[in-house]
Design a protein that fits this description.
The protein is α/β, with parallel strands linked by helices. It folds into four domains: about 80 residues, DNA polymerase, domain 1 (Orthogonal Bundle); about 130 residues, Rossmann fold; about 190 residues, Rossmann fold; about 100 residues, no CATH class. It is built from 25 helices and 13 strands. Helix 15 links the parallel strand 10 and strand 11. Helix 7 runs parallel beside helix 12, helix 13 crosses helix 25 and helix 19 packs across helix 21. The chain is elongated and about 95 Å long. The N and C termini lie far apart (about 55 Å). The relative contact order is 0.09. The C terminus is likely disordered.
Length: about 575
């Protein structure tokens, strides 16, 4: 699928020319005619082929406009400026980095963008194909570059005329786009608002849809592809999830035993994403794209023991104190004085204690599903768990090294299919769910005991997602991840001196209605110890919130992040 920009993904830029003509009192199409005069040799066509920059074009076009006005004996207003005309083309206005997402949301055609997202999800290759220019004007070039980079988050490929030397309606640019996508013209469809562009594409065998009404055009696209593309109106649209081959993978040797692998995407204030068990950076794939789009630099770690990070065998390498030191070393190496930390599951537990012990290094803290559990220096948490394990019985099964590792590594597809289960769809029965209770793991004789080997994966996951998890856990196995559960006493001893301290930096607690282990009610009363707390509750969601309800979570985090700069003074 090829998508034009102006007239398809954002409003028609031609309307800006008409408005400017009317504003100056010029006759209708006075400027429009000049844009295409001389066809491929016109200044505008050379601009779109990258042979002129915007500043060069403005000088040449100024002369052409004055010459045309003289020939037609048309009074040209003294305030005419080609530069002002080019600025009128822009869909966005200059603003703070954090404002760009809002400006984008206000101007982009969300229905068309969501259709493109759905096509990608159905493994249909997508491409932006646009006539554009090289903007060298200081006041706008950054904005335009960011706009194109943002579109790149939504599509597989972006083909820009000014970077290829070809422009629509030249047939060469269509064949070039098809080669980039790895398809033949007859396997391709193209959406544009201009008949001349569509005519040229159709002559190559490309199926064409003229966009003059979005709903009608999307309906045509549905019939062509056999994919449901019409959605209810949304107030915010986020990019598709980050994929392993489309993100920057970085590594840092934070000490002699620990090399951390992390994904580093975007620019702006830093948001640090910490995953839990059994996960990896990939569990944040939706939030990575959404937060980068919203104007943040996102750093998503493979926590110690996971993925491409080091996985030492020693249990004490996974204590909260040790991992906290690893994370602070990473921030130091990256010259990041402060960040917002967001954690899920064990990553959530660590995030709260980072905020408690090192408040000077963090601007805000968010726990996804994991509440802040205050420290009781007089009560050993592991001894308490043995007395009343409840839903945490599985964690006692995890205590003996080697036992759970052997079980979970035997059939990893079954392991992840069981653990990563989401909320069943309505009327969907899963009789084996009762067998997978976390309350009777030791009695059943194992975490997976009694559960069929061929259970289906949850609907929020794909086979490719499961395959990626298996690939990552084959690197180091489950020893490191399970060692996190074997540090309860070490964590308790480290945190006991801070039992009277409160978390005063801005905080967000995200609860999920159907998390059967980290239940929403466990977060009740957090306001007593987390004094600047915002809450977000997500319905029909299991423990796997970042993946099961990605847009709801991303929207909540983005909205909360926007409040941090204006957060009130912490209550002491």
């Amino acid at each position: 699928m090829l998508f034009d920009v102006g007239g398809v993904l954002v409003p028609q830029p031609q309307k800006a020319i008409a408005r400017y003509e009317n504003e100056l009192g010029l006759r209708k199409r006075f400027l429009s005619e000049l844009f295409l005069e001389g066809e491929s040799y016109s200044a505008f066509c050379r601009l779109e082929r990258g042979l002129l920059t915007v500043s060069e074009f403005c000088k040449e076009f100024d002369v052409a406009v004055r010459s045309k006005a003289h020939l037609e004996n048309a009074p040209l207003p003294v305030n005419f400026s080609t530069l002002r005309l080019m600025q009128a083309f822009q869909a966005h206005t200059t603003g703070k980095k954090a404002d760009f997402a809002l400006l984008f949301q206000q101007s982009v055609n969300k229905q068309m963008l969501n259709a493109a997202k759905r096509l990608r999800k159905q493994n249909i290759r997508t491409c932006v194909l646009t006539n554009n220019w090289i903007d060298d004007i200081e006041s706008s070039k950054g904005r335009n570059c960011r706009f194109m980079a943002t579109l790149g988050l939504f599509f597989d490929e972006v083909v820009q005329s000014a970077l290829t030397g070809m422009r629509k309606p030249s047939p060469e640019i269509y064949t070039y786009a098809c080669r980039k996508l790895g398809v033949a013209p007859h396997e391709t469809a193209f959406l544009d608002d201009l008949g001349v562009n569509l005519k040229s594409a159709s002559q190559l065998g490309i199926k064409c849809i003229k966009v003059d009404d979005t709903a009608r055009s999307v309906k045509e696209l549905e019939k062509l592809c056999g994919v449901d593309l019409l959605f209810p109106a949304e107030d915010m649209v986020f990019p598709p999830p980050a994929t392993p081959d489309k993100v920057c993978h970085s590594y840092a040797q934070v000490n002699e035993k620990m090399r951390l692998h992390f994904v580093d995407v975007g620019e702006g204030p830093v948001v640090l994403l910490l995953h839990g068990f059994p996960d990896c950076w990939y569990g944040w794939r939706y939030q990575i794209a959404a937060l980068a789009f919203a104007g943040y630099r996102v750093i998503a770690l493979d926590m110690p023991g996971y993925g491409e990070s080091s996985a030492p065998a020693a249990i004490d390498e996974y204590s909260h104190k040790k991992v906290s030191e690893d994370i602070l070393s990473l921030l130091d190496m990256l010259c990041i004085p402060q960040a917002v930390v967001v954690g899920h599951d064990w990553g959530g537990s660590l995030a709260w204690y980072l905020a408690l012990v090192y408040p000077h290094r963090f601007k805000g803290v968010c726990g996804v599903n994991t509440p802040f559990f205050p420290i009781n220096p007089n009560k050993n948490p592991l001894e308490s768990m043995y007395k009343r394990p409840g839903v945490f019985d599985y964690q006692l099964y995890f205590q003996e090294p080697g036992v759970a590792e052997k079980e979970l590594e035997k059939n990893m597809k079954k392991t992840f299919s069981v653990i990563l289960q989401g909320v069943p769809k309505e009327n969907e029965k899963r009789v084996w769910n009762a067998l997978a209770s976390t309350s009777n793991v030791r009695k059943r004789g194992g975490f997976l005991a009694g559960i069929p080997d061929d259970i289906p994966i949850s609907s929020y996951l794909s086979e490719a997602d499961i395959a990626y998890y298996i690939e990552q856990f084959k690197k180091n196995g489950f020893r490191g991840p399970l060692n996190w559960y074997r540090n309860y006493e070490a964590n308790w001893k480290w945190l006991s001196p801070f039992s009277e301290r409160k978390i005063t930096i801005p905080a967000l607690m995200v609860t999920a209605s159907h998390d059967s282990v980290l239940k929403p009610e466990y977060s009740y009363g957090m306001e007593k110890t987390v004094t600047n707390l915002t809450r977000l509750h997500i319905n029909r969601c299991s423990h796997w919130t970042p993946q099961e309800k990605p847009d709801e979570l991303s929207r909540g985090i983005v909205n909360w992040l926007e409040t941090i700069s204006a957060a009130p003074q912490a209550k002491l």
